[in-house]
């Protein structure tokens, strides 16, 4: 049985007042096999961990550096994230791949740093609209998997999130068949590389304009084990119906 995960990426949104949303989320009834992960901005990590202690909510960072410490002004290392009590970290989000020109090799090093710090990496993959229109989606995803998923990956250190770049924050969602095709492909690639016991145990999330009105259908796909949600995770009132749809899937 794979872990179902509803992960919220707050991006660069929220000051301490946003922690009230964690309180609202923590009132959700306990949902078996369903993990809620909130990834707030780094300055809120420690308080978010404190505030969610004793609830079903786990906390994650949105990025980490590849090094454990050193002269990297403004960066945060994986051991620092772990030291806050957070248990997850997003790596390879397309906004970082684009804005900071992160390559697969950088994402690989970040996922390794996360693993070595005892964190679970939520590793993001996704194609551009040009890739999709040129029928290159599976090639791109395959290359990202090979280039950025570390050796030794398993369900205790890795979650994979498929996020078509053209669907992030745009309100555009791939067809159900497109989501199924890519998730089935990722599952097969993981099984081929790590063996079926390990490959089948790694949770795969879909991300890109997931909302209350499309979540239930997306979660019916066999290899979709949850969602990575941006905009609709900022308010508990918007995120809770997505979590409930996952729990009921
Ligand atoms: C994201 O940034 O990972 C994301 C999926 O954003 P949104 O849900 O807003 O499309």
* Radius of gyration of CA atoms, rounded to a whole number: 17 Å
Largest sheet: 8 strands, parallel, barrel
Bound molecules: phosphoenolpyruvate
Element string (H = helix, E = strand): EHEHEHEHHEHHEHHEHEH
| The level-1 CATH class | Alpha Beta
Specify the number of helices: 11
**CATH architect. name:** Alpha-Beta Barrel
Task: Find the structural class using helix and strand composition.
Answer: alpha/beta
Going by CATH, what is the homologous superfamily?
A: Aldolase class I
Number of domains: 1
Description:
The chain is 40% helix and 16% strand. By secondary structure, the protein is of the alpha/beta class. The chain has one domain: TIM Barrel. An eight-stranded parallel β-barrel has the order 1-2-3-4-5-6-7-8, surrounded by six helices. Residues 9, 163, 168-169, 207-210, 228-232 line the site of phosphoenolpyruvate.
What descriptive keywords fit this protein?
TIM Barrel, binds phosphoenolpyruvate, 8 strands, alpha/beta, 11 helices, 249 residues, globular
Task: Give the topology, please.
Layout: E1 4-9, H1 20-26, E2 34-39, H2 45-52, E3 57-61, H3 78-83, E4 88-91, H4 94-99, H5 104-116, E5 120-125, H6 129-133, H7 137-148, E6 158-162, H8 176-194, H9 196-199, E7 204-207, H10 212-218, E8 226-229, H11 236-247
Parallel strand pairs: 1-2, 1-8, 2-3, 3-4, 4-5, 5-6, 6-7, 7-8
């Amino acid at each position: 049985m794979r872990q179902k995960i509803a992960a919220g990426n707050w991006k660069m949104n929220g000051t301490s007042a946003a922690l009230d949303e964690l309180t609202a989320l923590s009132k959700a009834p306990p949902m078996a096999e369903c993990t809620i992960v909130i990834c707030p901005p780094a300055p809120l990590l420690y308080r978010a961990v404190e505030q969610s202690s004793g609830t079903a909510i786990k906390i994650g960072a949105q990025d980490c550096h590849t090094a454990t410490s050193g002269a990297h002004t403004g960066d945060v290392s994986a051991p620092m994230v772990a030291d806050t009590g957070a248990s997850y970290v997003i790596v390879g989000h397309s906004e970082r791949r684009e804005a900071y020109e992160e390559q697969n090799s950088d994402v690989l090093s970040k996922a390794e740093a996360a693993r070595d710090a005892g964190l679970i990496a939520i590793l993001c993959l996704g194609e551009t609209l040009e890739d999709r229109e040129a029928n290159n989606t599976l090639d791109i995803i395959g290359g990202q998997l090979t280039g950025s998923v570390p050796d030794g990956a398993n369900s205790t250190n890795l979650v994979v999130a498929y996020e078509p770049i053209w669907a992030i924050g745009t309100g555009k969602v791939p067809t159900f068949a497109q989501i199924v095709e890519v998730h089935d492909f990722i599952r097969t690639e993981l099984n081929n590389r790590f063996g079926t016991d390990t490959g089948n145990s790694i949770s795969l999330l879909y991300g890109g304009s997931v909302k209350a009105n499309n979540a239930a259908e997306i979660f019916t796909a066999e290899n979709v084990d949850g969602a990575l949600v941006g905009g609709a995770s900022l308010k508990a009132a918007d995120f809770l119906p997505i979590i409930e749809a996952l729990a009921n899937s």
